Amino acid sequence: MMKKKLSIIPYITFISIILIFFYLLIIQRNPSEIPSVFINKEIPKFESSSILNKKKFVSSENFNNEVTLVNFFATWCKPCRDEHIFIKKFAETNNI
Amino acid sequence: MAAYAGNVALWLSLFFSLFQFIGSRKKYNFKIISISVNGLIISSLVSFFLLMYCYIISDFSVLNVFQNSHTSKPMLYKISAVWGNHEGSMLLWILVLTIFNYFLLKIYNQKNFKFVLKVLEIQSFITFGFILFTIFTSNPFERNFPIPENGLGFNPILQDPALAIHPPLLYLGYVGFSAVFSISVATLIYGNDKKIPWYNYMKPFVVSAWTFLTIGIALGSLWAYYELGWGGWWFWDPVENASFMPWLLGTALLHSLIIVEKRKSLQAWVLLLSILAFLLSVTGTFLVRSGILTSVHTFALDPSRGLYILAFTALLGGYSLLTYAKKSKDYFDKNYFSFFSKEGSILVNNLFMIVVCSTVFLGTVYPLIVEAFTGNKISVAEPYYNSTVIPIIIPAILIMGIGPILTWNKDDKSKIMKKIYPSIFITIVLTFIFFIIYKSYNFLGIVGIFLAFWIISNNFIIIVKKIKNYSASMIISHIGIGLLILGITGSSVWQEEKITRLKVKNQTKIKEYNILFEEINEIKGLNYVAIQGNFSIYDSKKNFITKLSPEKRFYPVTKNFTTEASIHTNLFRDLYMVLGDGNFKDGWVIRIYYNPLVIWIWIGAFTIFLGGFISTIKNLKKIKS
Fold first, then answer.
1. Å from B127 to nearest chain A CA?
2. CA atoms B320, B325, B329, B335: torsion sign
3. ipTM
4. DSSP code per residue over B571-608
5. Which CATH number belongs to the domain containing residue B68 in this structure?
6. Closest residue in A to B586 (Cα–Cα)
7. Is B377 exposed, middle or buried (0-12, 13-18, 19+ CB in 10 A)?
8. Environment class of A32 (CB within 10 Å of its CB; exposed 0-12, middle 13-18, buried 19+)
9. What's the domain range around B136?
């Protein structure tokens, strides 16, 4: 009897998961948009080695108290390359 | 013209699948069913090869060819582009469904015809659903007007031999589970008729699907390793998980089926696993093709497609699992068995596989569940999988080593110890020798290496002692798993990475290797231009080892940059180099990986495949006789 009741569990689990998927499909959402947990927070202090010149990179010295845009990108990443043109313009016009 | 004919063939397959559905439902005679099954496979073959023909002749009047091909592309990749996109891959999906449909007809005989008709009815329903989906939401034969002069090209990272054959093998795997699903649901509906050896019918399909899935996943992983240039071979991406989950369930299914065969136990369990394995394959397809989550593999961002696949998945899953809930009681058994027996060890391992599968499933859909209930977006990544999957896998592998040497029913505990003493001894000795050579001590490393040798030595003992009743396929596959663990452990525990900037004629070091930057050149390929760095590798005694030439390629047609890693492989380690940006004045950024034992991952996977392949052939012969 117990087993008989248990055999409905796969069905219920499956239907619940399908309902969640269905709900996510019909609401307005952008799956590629992931909000950062750093929004409205101060930049953490960090040190790292630098590839360009052999000096150490220390965030508190380099950033000071000005508005700084730090962009993470990869050279082989097409969207990054497209974005770069925009960032350059942005830096020139907004004093960043 | 070819596109027009291809479209007609696709419609014909829709017709044949419907015809087969009605025919098997109304129990028409064998001849009519046979016509529909053959008609279905022929029409799907025709539409598939006609699309391929459109690609070969670069017929850009077909939208799909225009979007994914270019005249300058090498022939092999014109062909593989057929399944390198959503619409075309649906044709491959349909083709595989019909191939398995064709083999399902082969189990037909005078005694089981009612049962087989039920199986064919379900299989044709699945096929019909997917053809309908393809024709109305993703038709690869859609036309393009005015006809453009050339195509948009094909993503260059997909232009690769391993990736050309990876999707067909993978599809043979998880679409193959459709046949297992159909047999399972038919068995449930048909009721427990002891004359129908459904588990014998199911076995060749489970074994073949699992075997192809294994090699399909391995090739995908091999491709990711050398083509993406990230130095790794598994990233816990949703798509990788989508193929890994059916594999785990398939593994559990494969072993439980042996118990059903030998002891007529666990029947209800096997029927459930068979249903779930295919449902997971379809759900995986949904996750990738609906755009519901982002992954490196996500390709068709079209909500209507998502809704259709979801509705169809709901229909298949709802129907099969409800049938299961109603009918599985026919297959319950009251057999309990000892933990210290072959079936006991298989059952325990089954549970481990299910737990791993659920863990991976939870990791994959958890961000979606959180988002649905709270609106927050989170992501689940490698640390979760590593910290959950590894601890569950370890005991499973320990048991996997002992399982094959236990006897059926009940084994004497004191005899078990006697049986495993030699392999414990060999394992410890081998592990010891390993660490004397490698001189690197790491807890996970020791555990992994121990487990690998544990599996391998247990199987060698079976061979040496000439214990009877062991299939060669089982021993080969299990040794393959041992080798796989060796590779996974080596490459994940002892991988070293070095990122540095290097000028021409300068050198750097990784482990005991000195790397000298010889020169940098511009080269021209068939459809790309590239800069290529040339590096000479010397060992600590200044012996020349090899030359490595990583490239940065530019494909003008698709305006893509790709990195081509350069790898030197031997049985002990890989040296893996990637070239980054740079110039003559400041030097070039290079990434070097030292990946120990990585080749054993693919040797292991291929060995597993070999074992599975032998078993498939053996099981097919059994059905024929």
1. 21
2. positive
3. 0.86
4. SSEEEEEEEEEEETTTEEEEEEEEEETTHHHHHHHHHH
5. 1.20.120
6. A52
7. middle
8. exposed
9. 1-143
- Cα separation, B83 vs B138, in Å, equals 13
CA atoms within a 13 Å half-sphere pointing along the CA-CB vector of A31 = 23
A96 contacts A67 by C-beta, under 8 angstroms:
yes
**Overall domain count for chain B:** 2
- Give this prediction's pTM: 0.90
Residue B175 lies in a domain: no
* Cβ separation A22–B310 shorter than 8 A: yes
Last residue of a domain, one of B143, B172, B206: B143
- The mean pLDDT value for B515-535 works out to 91
At residue B235 the predicted structure's pLDDT band, cuts being 50, 70 and 90, is: confident
Residue B285 inside a domain? The answer is: no
Chain B residues within an 8 Å CB radius of A14: 279, 317-318, 321
Nearest CA in chain A to B333: A3
Q: Give pLDDT tens digits for A64-75.
A: 667 777 787 776
pLDDT band, very low/low/confident/very high, at A96 (cuts 50, 70, 90): low
Q: Would residue B181 count as lying in a domain?
A: no
Tens of pLDDT, residues B86-97: 899 999 999 999
With residues binned 3-state (H G I as helix, E B as strand, rest as coil), the percentages for chain B, rounded to 5, are: 65, 10, 25
CB contact under 8 A, B372 and A24: yes
Give the pLDDT band (50/70/90) at residue B341.
confident
Encode pLDDT of A31-64 as tens digits: 666 667 777 777 777 777 666 665 666 666 666 6
For chain A positions 51-90, those within 8 Å of chain B (CB to CB) are: 51-52, 75-76, 78, 81
Number of A/B CB contacts below 8 angstroms equals 88
Q: In angstroms, what separates the C-alpha of B150 from chain A's closest C-alpha?
A: 22
CA–CA distance, B18 with B1 (Å, rounded to integer): 26
CB contact under 8 A, B324 and A7: yes
Give the mean pLDDT of B394-410: 85
Instruction: Collect all residues with Cβ–Cβ distance below 8 Å to B145 and sequence separation of at least 6.
Output: B61
User: Which among A7, A36, A85 is the top mutation candidate for probing chain B, defined by the most B β-carbons within 10 Å of its own β-carbon?
Assistant: A7
The CB density around residue B304, as the number of other CB atoms within 10 Å, is: 12
Quick: pLDDT tens for B57-85. 999 999 999 998 988 888 999 999 999 88
Domain end residue (candidates: B126, B143, B160): B143
Residue from A49, A50, A51, A78 whose CB has the most chain B CBs within 10 Å, to mutate: A51
Report which residue type is found at B366. Y
CA B35/CA B340 separation, integer angstroms:
51
How far, in Å, are B114, B182, B199 from residue B111 at the CA level?
A: 8, 19, 16
**Contact, B495 vs B595, CB < 8 A?**
yes
Omega cis (within 30) before B146? yes
In a domain, B395, yes or no: no
Cβ contact, residue pair B377, A33, below 8 Å: yes
What is the rounded (10 degree) CA torsion for B524, B525, B529, B532?
-70
User: Is A6 within 8 Å of chain B by CB?
Assistant: no
| CB–CB contact B292 A25 (8 Å) | yes
Looking at residues B292-296, what average pLDDT do you find? 66
Mean pLDDT taken over chain B: 90
Nearest to B562 among A11, A17, A76 (CB): A76
What are the contacts of B371-379 at 24+ separation with CB within 8 A? B371/A24, B371/A29, B372/A20, B372/A23, B372/A24, B377/A33, B377/A34, B377/A35, B379/A34
Q: What is the mean pLDDT of residues B436-462?
A: 89
Contacts of A32 in chain B (CB under 8 A): 294
| Residue B233 pLDDT grade (very low, low, confident, very high; cuts 50, 70, 90) | confident
Is B318 within 8 Å of A23 when comparing Cβ atoms? no
Q: C-alpha angle B26/B30/B35, rounded to 5°?
A: 95
